[in-house]
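Re-run with default settings, no changes from the original entry. Doing this only to confirm the output is reproducible before filing.
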Amino acid sequence: MNQLKNEWFGNVKGDILSGIVVALALIPEAIAFSIIAGVDPMMGLYASFCIAVVISFTGGRPAMISAATGAMALVLASLVREHGIQYMLAATILTGVIQYLLGVFKIARFMKFIPRSVMIGFVNALAILIFIAQVPHIFGISTMTYVVVGVTLAIIYLFPLITKVVPAPLVAIIAMTVLAISTSFDLRTVGDLGTITQSLPSFFLPDVPFNFETLAIILPTAIALAIVGLLESLLTASIVDDMTDTTSNKNKESRGQGISNIVSGCFGGMAGCAMIGQSVINVKSGGRGRLSAFVAGVFLMFLIIALGPWVVQIPMAALAGVMVMVCIGTFDWSSLRMLPKVPLTDTIVMVVTVATVVATHDLSKGVFAGIILSAIFFVAKISKVKIKETMVSKDSARYTVKGQLFFASVESFEEAVLKLETPRYVELNFTETHIWDDSAVASIDKIVEKLNGRGTDVTLTGLNDDSQRLVDRLGRHHQTEKKAVGQ
């Protein structure tokens, strides 16, 4: 009970103010992502409202902001284009169901298999993508646009020197909006992105046939959305953990993401997930609890319903300036200083992750590329096997195997043993190794057979319990093996 109270009311002032800042930043993002997905701008706004409010109750990471996102919009675009909005809503609901089940089955435990180099690459790539997304709102518009961006950044970084009571990004947005309204400067506004309707979302189920044909249409998209959404959400949760020096319940977050997407689909919204940009804004503006996400969602809808005519006049240059601040704060600058010190393989993984994300604009592809490359480097590193030869007597020798025996190392294992001039008796000693799979057992069988063919008797020694059980269970030449071991 105390934990719940602290998560909701332990930082009321900071959470309310940061939630207001996030709500202002969510509007252009939600509209832009709706355009990417090919749906009405209000669908992105409704999604951001529903997801932010629901996740504040059901999520496992306080202070993290979830809403409509570009990654999810990209996945949805083809479904909307080929089958229409109703199927998109059905896919959003199914996405939520899949995510909830993945949370129930504790899928978050697989986060430990994502290397730090991939995490850093993910963060840096996201910072680059956020900046790239701001380029159309900054460059090639007007001289005044550059001025507003510059003044916005100046306020953000200098205003805290005066006071930290009010978040600097909020002050910057309000000041630049007043400037835009009171002057006739050539500035693009939120209203230029799309039409905002001053109405609340309503509950309805997607108008699609509930049959296997519909399931076949939406299931591939829903699976992709579920994976992309959880991957982005859990990685963002880890980043917020580090920023706030706290922990979070990743499996609860998975279930919460599922529930929020189900609600979003039932209220006319598109699928969404955690947003690292808005989460960074929230934390840097003082947000620490669940109340910040709740306020962000509620204030977003308040802005649309009550202040719609004013919201559309917010200059995009001011919001772009806020997002540039997010880019600067998100990018891990220390990773550049560490490049000469970290292993070359880690550097390659980070660079490939960043390059893949920036090239495809798909965070999941970059992360998967980084994980696969890390796995390849790891396998290559541990697949080196050495054989230490010790002559016990004139007719006998001990071959001590050093390294891990599995599918990637068996070739070097066989070459190292079979190239030796073997005496009458050989002891294969496995004290300093472990046998992991069928390939390793088959390799041992092969070596025993070949050495027996040379007239050499082989004894296997030093097998640990797991390795011994694997050899006993999978050995293909039991008679030869037993004879060899019994010599």
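The chain has a mean pLDDT of 87. Residues 2-332 form one domain.
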